[in-house]
Amino acid sequence: MIDNKDSDIMAKQQVLESAAKAIVGKDEIILRAFLAMLARGHILIEDIPGVGKTTLAIAFSKALTLDYNRVQFTPDILPSDVTGFSIFNKDTGNMEYTPGAVLCNLFLADELNRANSRTQSALLEAMEEGQVTVDGITYVIPQPFMVIATQNPVGAAGTQLLPDSQMDRFMVRLALGYPEYSDEQSLVLRKQSGNLLDFVEPVLKSDELEAMRAEVDKIYVDKKMVEYIVSLITATRNHPHILLGGSPRATLALTSMSKAMAYMQSRDYIIPDDIPPIFTDTLSHRMILRPSAASENVTAEDILIGILKSVPVPQVTA
Questions:
Q1: For labeling, which of 126, 136, 154, 176 is most exposed (least CB within 10 Å)?
Q2: pTM of the complete model beyond 0.85
Q3: Which residues of the chain are under the pLDDT cut of 70?
Q4: Bridge partners of 45?
Q5: How far is CA 87 from CA 79, 91, 94, 134, 269, in A?
C-alpha cells in the first residue's frame, strides 16, 4: 500500500482548499482539474464568459507554485508567439532561440478557439510530447507541464471549432456553469475584501507536484480493470449514435484519471468506483455523434451514462 502519511493527505486537501478560495461553490470541478494534473493531462474548460475559467487556471498556478504563462488567443496570434522563434545575432553570427510562451509549467491558452488553425496546431507537439521544434531544433519543456485551455461555446461570436486531433489531446473537458444562488452571494461578499486570487496560498512546490505524479504512475491496475476500461471504450466505438468513438489515447486517459482518483483516496490500486465520477469528463469531448443523435436530442453525456450502466462491472478485491 501507499504510505498514507498525514502530511501527504493534508497536502492534497490543502491544494483543493487553496484553489477553492478563488472559485466559490465549484469543489467538484476543482477536484477533477487537480485529478487531470496528477494524471499528467491537459484541461479544456468550455463555458460562457465570466464564470471563472481563467480564475481557475491562475488559482492552481498559485497553489502549486508553477511557472505560469498566459496567451489571450485572437485571430492575429502567430504560432511563434506560442512556440518561440529564432533570430540572428549579429554579434555572434548565430541564430538564437527566443522561447515562446508555452515553455513554462502551466500554460493558459485563453479562448483558444478564437485563434486560427495554424496557431491552434502549434500546441499539438507541446501537449503530446512535452517539447517544441523550431527551425529543426527541439526544445524540451520543463516538467511538470500542463495546458489549461479555455474556450467559449461553439457558435459564439469569433470562435471556430478546435480540430479533433487537438480535442483528443485534452485529458478532460470541464464546465463551471453558473454558481448556485447562495454561492453567488458568497462570491459577492468575499469580493468586498479584495481580489479573490490574493487569498490563494502556495501549498506545493513544482517538484512536489511532480513527485505526486510519479506516485500516481505507480498505481496498480488489475487485469480485470484493464478489461473493464477497454470494454467501456469499445462500447463507444460500437454505439449506433456515435460516429467516432474513443481512441486508444482515450483508453490511456481514462486509465490515468482512474489512477489519480485512487491516489486521492490513498489507495495504490484502482477499483470500478473510481471510473464513474470522471468518465464523462474524460470521454465526452472525444465523441463525434451521428446526425440521428441530434434528431433524438441525445447528447454525448447521455450516451456515456448509458454505456456505464450497460457494461458489466467486474468484481475486484483488494
A1: 136
A2: yes
A3: 1-7, 154-159, 317-318
A4: 150, 174
A5: 15, 12, 8, 11, 50
